[in-house]
Amino acid sequence: MEKKDLRIVYMGTPDFAVESLKRLVEGGYNVVGVITMPDKPMGRHQETLQPSAVKKYAVEQGLRILQPVSLKDPEFIEELRSLQADLQIVVAFRMLPEVVWNMPPMGTFNLHASLLPQYRGAAPINWAVINGEKETGITTFFLKHEIDTGAVIQQVRIPILETDNVGDVHDKLMMLGGQLVTDTVDCILEGTVKAIPQEEMAPGTELKPAPKIFKETCRIDWEHKNLEQLYNFVRGLSPYPAAWTELVRAEGEKPVVMKIYQTAKEAAAHTLKTGAVCTDGKSYLKIAVDGGFLVLQEIQIAGKKRMPVTDFLRGARIDENYFVV
Fold it and tell me: Which DSSP string do the residues of 98-119 spell out, in sequence order?
C-alpha cells in the first residue's frame, strides 16, 4: 500500500501534537480525519470558545474534524467508523476506550514523550527534568488496555542539558516526534515493525512515574530538598505551570505569592536557616538552602508580569528579614 492510500485518523490537542500532524500532511500521507478536544470556553464570562492548536491547523488544511465530548458516544463511534481508517495515530490526547483504539485493522499507535517504560503518565517531560535525568527521548508504541504500556515500535534519545528547562526539552521532543511519527508509519507500511513488549525492555529496573501536575505539586518544598533538587524542580516546571512559593516578612503578615522561572546554583557552606532571603536590595536575591543558595533570576509576583529579579528589586523593598515558605 502506498502512503497516499493509507487512511489515517489523527488524534491530538495541544501544540505538541501539531508538528506530527503537519509532517503527515506535508509528507503526502492521507489524513482522513482529525479528532481533538471540544473548543474550550474562555474569558470572564466563558463566552468565547477557544479551539485547540490541532484544530486550528486542521481547519487551515481543510481536514475533517471531530470533537466528541465523550469518546464512547455511539454517534461519534459510528462517525469514526465511517472514516474507514487503516491506522490511527495518537499524540497528546485522551485515554481511548478499546472500541476506539481497536478499530483500525493496522492498529493505533501513540507518541509518548519519554523513553518508555520510564515516565508513563501525563507529564513525562516535567518529571524527567525535575528528577535530574541526563537524557530522555520519544517513543512510539501500540495502544492496549493499560495506559502507556503497549509494545514499543521505535525510540529516539536526546540529552537533557543542565541548563534546559521543560520548555526547551518539550520543543526538541516535539520536532523529533514529528519525524518519528512519519518514520513509524513508513515502518508499518513496509511491514518491518518488530514491536518490543515493554516488560522485556527494563527487567528489574525501578520505573519512575509521570503523574499529572497540579498547583500544589508546583509548590517548592524548601525544607526537604537540597540545592540540586530545587534547581531541577524550578526548571522542570518552567515556563509552565511554574514553581511557586510564598515570600513572607513576619509572622501574621500576608504572604506574597511568587512564581520562579529561572535560577542559578551557588554551592556554599552556611549556617542560615533554610528559606532565609539574602539580598542587597538591588542586584541579587538568593535563598539559603541545603548545600548553598538558590539564586533567583526570573520571577513573577501575583498580579504582575514575569520579570528579571533586578526589576523586581527596583520596585520592591525586600531586605534580609524576609523568608520563603
Answer: HHHHT-STT-EEEEESS-TTTT
